[in-house]
Amino acid sequence: MKKKVILPEGVEDLLIDDCHFRREIEGKLMRYLELAGYMEVQTPTLEYYDLFSHDYLSQYGNRMFKLVDTNGSLLVLRPDCTIPIARMVATKMKDFTYPIKLSYLNNVFRMDQEQSGRKREYRQAGVEIFGVDSYKADVEAIVTAIEALLSLGLMEFQIEIGQVKIIKGILKTLETTEDHQVAILQAIENKNLIRLKELLDAFDLQADTQKLIEMLPTLMGNPYDVFTKLNEMVLTRDVEEGLNELKKVLNLVKEYGYEEYIQLDLGMVAHMDYYTGIVFKGFYKGLGTVILSGGRYDGLMEDFGLSCSATGFAFVVNKLIKAIKIQGEYTLSKNKHILIVAADSKYNKASAIAKKDRSEGNIVEIALAEDLDNYIKHRRVDEVMVISNCSEAGGVGYGGS
Amino acid sequence: MEVVKIALTKGRLLKDQIKLLQAIGYDCNHISPQDRRLVQEIPDKGLQVVFLKAQDVPTYVEHGIVDMGIVGKDVLLEVKKKLYEVADLRFGRCHLAVAGRKGGIDGKRHLKVATKYPNIAKEFFAAKGQSVEIIKQEGSVELAPLLGLSDVILDIVETGSTLRANGLVVLEEVMEISARLVLNKVSYKTKLKLRQIIDEIDLQLKGGC
């Protein structure tokens, strides 16, 4: 009987070329992170459901793939990389010397709405920095993102920075129900100015506060312009503090010489209960989706009984690869591909040649194919080496297509 | 020249959408949803237009296949995509309402609801604590209560004449609806031209209506 041959929704096979391309990009990316001092770690694909069931993670709640363990406890396929790493640091690495700079490359699983064209299994590569309270760690994360993208040859990208403390600082002054607050945040996030005004009109707000909140979604783009707009505003101390931190971050990024990649969006509302400070996202001009995102999450470690500041970000690997492909001009490193055709009695010699050539970085195969010409053409073999019973090894160049 | 792609909704909103584009200086005389070209260009302006069915507009915008779109609020509420909703274009106004036969649901604890908007219906009745069974329809929703498929319908009501012709009345307003301008979240940040178009539309809205 013929087996069922379709795939579940939201997952994919990666065929040869795509796999090769992904490995090369990931290799470069992880190598850069290694050179920048990040140590790679790996957490398991399966975790307990409870690890992700905090209030502020409710966004994942019904979107996690769940399994039942033999003893009845609920397991999930990792829906996120940061929380397991935070768990690992808090339980197994807390005595390490801080700061701890970690990197990872993992698959994550999220049950998205069906038929929405979104992946349900995808790869994230990222970094987490534990134990640095200062804005310098925020800058380190942002600069790592920029330099990683540059190391991949990506050019027209943008990093957009927001500051959760500003929104939180303002909302703190509003006496409102949680539902109302969520609605306000949603209106800010969707830049829905009409709805925002409606929601705010329901309060008897001070004119200054109302104006500032209404302005938030529009405080984006060039940092200088944003700060100019804010100069005219009356700000509370919390907001002022958040803003100063943001300025420090921008100044240091500027010192690095990466000012051109930076934009602001003070209306960036990113999982507000989770992030606590500077947040950022990365875009590529020709691609309508986010290629990386991250930020500071100082509160998370407390859930594991450890008071420790943390910040980090993750690349969405398939989006990153898409951006690189859209930009074009990326040439994969190619090794010379050698095919050895040997008589049985010459396998000993063939094996020796293969070992030597492989050690020099070439792809070397001992021929298995019946139809050699066809194989050589389709696998783009550069050189064929025939070792017959009567001859010494001799190369026949096919001048690879 | 930077090219911006916009998705327009086919159907009852189309005339007003074209009018809006004309008003802000985009010559729409050579584009039409009947045209066989899937992507049509407004000459010399770097604006490309695609005509889509309403439900597809948010999807195209979310994925960044088009940078911006015009679509009814009803559709946005139903499909809930991640995008920026930046302007109420004030045309295509109508209501979402629950309708049925007069007195047809008196005393009923559990309602059968026929609708093209199952998600909106689910949320609306859940918020009221009303127990319902939702029956998704593709068209001619008014038929459902007449033939006994459902107790009520949840649908858009423009003038109410279709309801009246079928002997139905509005039992409850759900909300007002109008056409909205929606943007892809990334395009808004990366394409300057997009912001120009929004500003032009804003200006038009402030001055025009």
From TrEMBL, chain A:
<dbReference type="InterPro" id="IPR006195">
    <property type="entry name" value="aa-tRNA-synth_II"/>
</dbReference>
<dbReference type="GO" id="GO:0000105">
    <property type="term" value="P:L-histidine biosynthetic process"/>
</dbReference>
<dbReference type="InterPro" id="IPR004516">
    <property type="entry name" value="HisRS/HisZ"/>
</dbReference>
<dbReference type="InterPro" id="IPR041715">
    <property type="entry name" value="HisRS-like_core"/>
</dbReference>
<dbReference type="GO" id="GO:0004821">
    <property type="term" value="F:histidine-tRNA ligase activity"/>
</dbReference>
<feature type="binding site">
    <location>
        <begin position="80"/>
        <end position="82"/>
    </location>
    <ligand>
        <name>L-histidine</name>
    </ligand>
</feature>
<keyword id="KW-0808">Transferase</keyword>
<feature type="domain" description="Aminoacyl-transfer RNA synthetases class-II family profile">
    <location>
        <begin position="22"/>
        <end position="382"/>
    </location>
</feature>
<comment type="function">
    <text>Required for the first step of histidine biosynthesis. May allow the feedback regulation of ATP phosphoribosyltransferase activity by histidine.</text>
</comment>
<dbReference type="InterPro" id="IPR004517">
    <property type="entry name" value="HisZ"/>
</dbReference>
<comment type="similarity">
    <text>Belongs to the class-II aminoacyl-tRNA synthetase family. HisZ subfamily.</text>
</comment>
<feature type="binding site">
    <location>
        <position position="110"/>
    </location>
    <ligand>
        <name>L-histidine</name>
    </ligand>
</feature>
<feature type="binding site">
    <location>
        <position position="124"/>
    </location>
    <ligand>
        <name>L-histidine</name>
    </ligand>
</feature>
<feature type="binding site">
    <location>
        <position position="128"/>
    </location>
    <ligand>
        <name>L-histidine</name>
    </ligand>
</feature>
<comment type="pathway">
    <text>Amino-acid biosynthesis; L-histidine biosynthesis; L-histidine from 5-phospho-alpha-D-ribose 1-diphosphate: step 1/9.</text>
</comment>
<comment type="subunit">
    <text>Heteromultimer composed of HisG and HisZ subunits.</text>
</comment>
<feature type="binding site">
    <location>
        <begin position="274"/>
        <end position="275"/>
    </location>
    <ligand>
        <name>L-histidine</name>
    </ligand>
</feature>
<keyword id="KW-0963">Cytoplasm</keyword>
<dbReference type="Pfam" id="PF13393">
    <property type="entry name" value="tRNA-synt_His"/>
</dbReference>
<dbReference type="GO" id="GO:0006427">
    <property type="term" value="P:histidyl-tRNA aminoacylation"/>
</dbReference>
<dbReference type="GO" id="GO:0140096">
    <property type="term" value="F:catalytic activity, acting on a protein"/>
</dbReference>
<keyword id="KW-0368">Histidine biosynthesis</keyword>
TrEMBL record, chain B:
<dbReference type="GO" id="GO:0005737">
    <property type="term" value="C:cytoplasm"/>
</dbReference>
<dbReference type="GO" id="GO:0005524">
    <property type="term" value="F:ATP binding"/>
</dbReference>
<dbReference type="InterPro" id="IPR024893">
    <property type="entry name" value="ATP_PRibTrfase_HisG_short"/>
</dbReference>
<comment type="pathway">
    <text>Amino-acid biosynthesis; L-histidine biosynthesis; L-histidine from 5-phospho-alpha-D-ribose 1-diphosphate: step 1/9.</text>
</comment>
<dbReference type="Pfam" id="PF01634">
    <property type="entry name" value="HisG"/>
</dbReference>
<keyword id="KW-0368">Histidine biosynthesis</keyword>
<keyword id="KW-0808">Transferase</keyword>
<keyword id="KW-0028">Amino-acid biosynthesis</keyword>
<comment type="function">
    <text>Catalyzes the condensation of ATP and 5-phosphoribose 1-diphosphate to form N'-(5'-phosphoribosyl)-ATP (PR-ATP). Has a crucial role in the pathway because the rate of histidine biosynthesis seems to be controlled primarily by regulation of HisG enzymatic activity.</text>
</comment>
<keyword id="KW-0547">Nucleotide-binding</keyword>
<protein>
    <recommendedName>
        <fullName>ATP phosphoribosyltransferase</fullName>
        <ecNumber>2.4.2.17</ecNumber>
    </recommendedName>
</protein>
<dbReference type="InterPro" id="IPR001348">
    <property type="entry name" value="ATP_PRibTrfase_HisG"/>
</dbReference>
<dbReference type="GO" id="GO:0003879">
    <property type="term" value="F:ATP phosphoribosyltransferase activity"/>
</dbReference>
<dbReference type="InterPro" id="IPR013820">
    <property type="entry name" value="ATP_PRibTrfase_cat"/>
</dbReference>
<keyword id="KW-0067">ATP-binding</keyword>
<feature type="domain" description="ATP phosphoribosyltransferase catalytic">
    <location>
        <begin position="53"/>
        <end position="201"/>
    </location>
</feature>
<dbReference type="InterPro" id="IPR018198">
    <property type="entry name" value="ATP_PRibTrfase_CS"/>
</dbReference>
<keyword id="KW-0328">Glycosyltransferase</keyword>
<dbReference type="GO" id="GO:0000105">
    <property type="term" value="P:L-histidine biosynthetic process"/>
</dbReference>
<comment type="similarity">
    <text>Belongs to the ATP phosphoribosyltransferase family. Short subfamily.</text>
</comment>
<comment type="subunit">
    <text>Heteromultimer composed of HisG and HisZ subunits.</text>
</comment>
<keyword id="KW-0963">Cytoplasm</keyword>
